[in-house]
Design goal:
four-stranded mixed β-sheet, alpha+beta, 16 strands, four-stranded antiparallel β-sheet
């Protein structure tokens, strides 16, 4: 079974051949180490195979279930800091994906993969950047909830012949150095909507901000901290706290935008209207509840939502997930929020383009 990366999700999010099997395992529950996780995973697989017996032949069930049962071994290759494990299988594709955000145990059989728990990762909504500053070096990191990874290191160039070579570069030299770094960083993080957090002394952070005002989402708030390779975990913890506040604020901004647009007829919380608007390409942002689900199926031909009862019809999924995926396929953005941060009591809300 292939280990998937973020780049593989373009294929997963597109319509696959029916049925699509999705399985999530919460790795934070380790009452008895991996023994407990293996037991839960095998139990989920048994339930899934039983449900498949209603719609597939024995040979088809074996084809679909074999990669998932082999995927039990993926636990050995899961990073120790992973919060969860996602496994996917259809007649066309299969693979596993360790998640850096918490997930709950979940099984689904539907006409598309269940991606709602990891939509923030797929859209890189949990990604942030860190820039550590010293007088002779700048390091760019990319990070998420699982950790920081060094992306590129910049060294301060030698002094010009006309300048006096000193231990510490002059402000003019630093400004030139930071400007050169800024231009390259802008190219590297182009398209990213995550925050950029600077780390170093206050004078250096102010100088970098003055030189780098065009870097998107460069935060005024920084970290007064001297980075070294031995304290990277401390840096990650400090940066993650700032990044999570940024993402939370962004969610609140969207909620406020919803309230402002609703009075103008450019936002809605009504499921049938939202589904129809998605297939017309009207939806710019869809907000779906992380804590609630609407069980059923989405008719992708008509845009109609078919509600089902999970106990009597095991072949279905969370319609909120289907709607979010359709918005992404049409160039919109999907946001998974806790219910207490949703702008309405409804588990779904949409902001329209027009």
């Amino acid at each position: 079974m292939k280990r998937l990366s973020i780049h593989d999700f373009d294929g997963l999010i597109k319509a696959q051949g029916y049925p699509c099997l999705s399985l999530y395992v919460d790795l934070s529950i380790k009452l008895q180490g991996h023994v407990n996780i293996y037991h839960r995973l095998r139990s989920q697989l048994d339930d899934m195979e039983k449900s498949l017996s209603y719609v597939c032949s024995a040979d088809e069930r074996q084809t679909l279930m074999k990669p998932l049962r082999q995927g039990v071994g993926a636990l050995y290759f899961t990073p120790h800091r992973a919060e969860g494990l996602a496994l996917f299988s259809s007649f066309d594709v299969n693979g596993f994906f360790p998640t850096s955000i918490p997930v709950k145990d979940y099984v689904s059989i539907s006409d598309s993969f269940h991606l709602k728990p990891i939509l923030p990762m797929i859209q890189k909504q949990t990604v942030f950047h860190v820039v550590t500053l010293t007088r002779n070096q700048l390091i760019l990191f990319i990070g998420d909830s699982s950790g920081l990874k060094e992306w590129k290191r910049y060294a301060e160039p030698p002094a010009d012949e006309a300048e006096t070579v000193t231990t510490f570069p002059t402000p003019a030299r630093l400004r030139r150095f930071f400007n050169e770094c800024k231009a390259d960083i802008c190219k590297l993080i182009r398209g990213s909507q995550g925050p950029v957090i600077t780390v170093g002394s206050l004078p250096l952070r102010k100088l970098f901000a003055a030189c780098s005002s065009r870097i998107p989402y460069l935060l005024k708030e920084g970290i007064n901290f001297r980075y070294s390779e031995g304290n990277s975990s401390v840096l990650h913890r400090l940066a993650l706290e700032i990044a999570e506040n940024f993402f939370k604020t962004r969610s609140l901004v969207l909620a406020n935008q919803y309230l402002a647009l609703q009075s103008k007829g450019k936002a809605s919380q009504h499921l049938p209207e939202i589904a129809e608007s998605i297939f017309l390409g009207r939806v710019a942002h869809i907000l779906v509840s992380k804590d609630q689900m609407l069980y059923g199926r989405l008719d992708r031909g008509s845009g109609k939502v078919i509600r089902l009862k999970q106990k009597t019809d095991p072949i279905g999924d969370d319609v909120l997930c289907d709607l979010a995926q359709e918005v992404i396929l049409r160039g919109g953005n999907a946001h998974v929020l806790p219910q207490n941060m949703m702008p309405t009591p409804s588990p779904v809300a949409a902001l329209y383009r027009w």
